[in-house]
Design a protein that fits this description.
179 residues; 40% strand; 2 domains; elongated; alpha+beta
């Protein structure tokens, strides 16, 4: 079985009641699969950004984008290439662990640069933010200890920033001479 092919769409919408419902209804009516969905207002309170990770095995990406553009409250849609974007996700998990295993779970959490956010006699609740691949690896390594509850936020993403270095200068060759 092959893994589904995912694409990340950053969708800027008007921050109005019912917009999210219309987007989700569009996906439902067309039987498009949403792998992950995160939404929150932007720095401008009149807009929200939806980060939608879509499974393009269920429908061509172009078709999904065309259908989204038909929704009146959609302002802008950008496909975010993983090579040119920054992606993050948050995981919180409650791990049932004995006192003997607690040190191993704490060390694993420290190695992955996570945090222990709650402790009881029988369990630890851990939190980790990072690239979705890192989150997947952490979850897989926690499973043998016994995860009793797990919540992931879904992926969020923004384009990488363009950088110009003032210390690097372009070198051009003119008829065999370097200037």
């Amino acid at each position: 079985m092959t893994e589904p092919k995912h694409h990340v769409l950053s969708v800027l919408v008007e921050n109005k009641a019912g917009v999210l419902a219309r987007v989700v209804n569009l996906f439902s009516r067309r039987a498009y699969n949403i792998y992950s969905l995160a939404v929150a207002p932007t720095d401008d309170p009149s807009f929200s950004r939806l980060t939608i990770v879509v499974d393009v095995e269920t429908a061509p990406l172009e078709q999904i984008v065309k259908q989204l553009h038909k929704l009146i409250n959609v302002v802008k849609i950008v496909e975010l290439d993983p090579r040119n974007s920054v992606e993050r996700e948050l995981l919180m998990a409650t791990v049932k662990c004995s006192v003997a295993d607690r040190g191993q779970v704490a060390e694993l959490t420290r190695i992955f640069e996570g945090r222990i956010v709650a402790v009881s006699n029988e369990a630890l609740t851990v939190s980790l933010e990072g690239h979705p691949g890192k989150i997947d690896d952490f979850e897989e390594l926690l499973r043998p200890f016994g995860i009793s509850e797990l919540q992931r936020t879904g992926r969020i993403a923004l384009p990488k920033l363009e950088r110009e270095s003032h210390r690097l200068h372009a070198v051009t060759a003119v008829k065999g001479k370097v200037s």
